[in-house]
Amino acid sequence: MAANTPCGLVSLNHVGVVPKNEKEMEQNQTQMTKDNNTNIDYTQRAQWLRAAVLGANDGLVSVASLMMGVGAVKRDVKAMLLAGFAGSIAGACGMAIGEFVSVYTQYEVEVSQMKRDMDMSGYKECEKVEFEMRMEKRRTLPNPMHAALASALSFTMGALVPLLSAAFISDYKIRLLVVVAMASLALVIIGILGAELGKTPKLWSCVRVLVGGWMAMAVTFGLTKSIGSSGLEL
């Protein structure tokens, strides 16, 4: 009887449905696999992609801006490199900790909301299991540790660009120009990679990160230069 059928299952014997043979089932399974390979849900990449792009962009821009700020008042390459190295270590640790705390908070909020939805639903026990399975499929819960590691690693990789650019150049003006040029090139690459992985427009992504990086470096250099020119002993 249909009344004895478990939740989520429908008995088809009473309507005369003939089970498919093994060949048809294999064909359907192959087609389903092809559909799953072609229909990629790019929203599942959003969490780690956001952390990676944010970390790389932040590491590149903040360390390059820090080195430009020091270079505005100090011509010594050692001062620029020490400032950039300290900024890269502090920034990577700060990004990892901040990302872990924020993402774990988001994780707890989503899990708590799912539990409240189940308690308020008033479903039977078997229907609650189905409800939980649907919620798990609909919501891709973030992984705090993955986000933290992605942020720290990408921040460090981004910070290496201005550090390596200035490490072997003794001339002051050429050093600043090379840092700006290499940082700009890296920003364009970050924009292209982020757009490619997320399947978004590449041009707008490149312009967004490039202009933002230029503004950060220019403001840091200009303000630090003005403080140094005002007679403050550094």
From TrEMBL:
Membrane-traversing stretches: 51-73, 79-105, 147-168, 174-194, 206-224
Any one of the GO BP annotations: intracellular manganese ion homeostasis
Domain of life: Eukaryota
Localization annotation: Vacuole membrane
GO CC annotations on file: vacuolar membrane
Known catalytic reactions: Fe(2+)(in) = Fe(2+)(out)
GO MF, one annotated term: iron ion transmembrane transporter activity
Topological type in the membrane: Multi-pass membrane protein
Keywords: Ion transport, Iron, Iron transport, Membrane, Transmembrane, Transmembrane helix, Transport, Vacuole
Recorded family membership: Belongs to the CCC1 family.
Function: Vacuolar Fe(2+) uptake transporter.
Protein name (database record): Vacuolar iron transporter
Organism field: Lupinus angustifolius
